[in-house]
Amino acid sequence: MSTDPQPAPQGAPLPPQGAPLPRRAPGAEAPPEAPPEAPPEAPILPEAPAPPGLAVPDQPQTTPERPAPAPSPPARPLPQHRIKRTRTSGVWVAVGFFAVVLLLLLIFILQNGAEVSVSYMGAHGRLPLGVALLLSAVCGVLLVVLAGAARISQLRAVARRHRRTDARRAKAAVSEPAGPAR
What we know:
Elements (H helix, E strand, L loop, with lengths): L86 H25 L3 E6 L2 E6 H47 L7
Antiparallel strand pairs: 1-2
Helix pairs in contact: 1-2
C-alpha cells in the first residue's frame, strides 16, 4: 500500500458542504483531500443600465426608453367664501397707515426741536427745525397736487367733448333711414 493520495472513485457521491465527513474504520486508508471548490462562475450577461439617479462610475448615464407616467391632475380645492372689500375696510386701512405716518412725523418734529429763523417773502420768524422742514414738505406736496388737479381737469374736458361727439353720432345713426330693401 502506498502513502500517496489516491484519486476518489468517479461515481462516489460527495457529502454536501458543511455536512460532517463519514467516519472511517481504524486502519482504513484516508480519502484523498479534494481541492477546494471554486465558486461557480456566473454567466456573462450584457450590462444593464443603472437605475435613474444612481450613477455608476465607468458607465454612461442612460435615459429610460419608456415615457414617464403623466402626472395626475391636481386636486380641486374646496370653494371658499370670499368677502368683498368695502369702502369702510379701505378707510380703516388708510386711517391705520396715516396714523403710523403721523407718529413718524411727530417723532421727527420732537427730535428736531432746535429753533431756526425762517424768512419768506418779507416775513421773518423763528420755528423749530422739524416744523419748518415739515411745513416746506407740505408746501411741495400742495404744488404737486395743484399740477395734478390741472391735468385732471384737462382730461375731463377732453372726455366730455368725446362723449358729446359720440352722442351726436349715435343720434344721427338712429334718425337716418335704413338702406334700400332688397
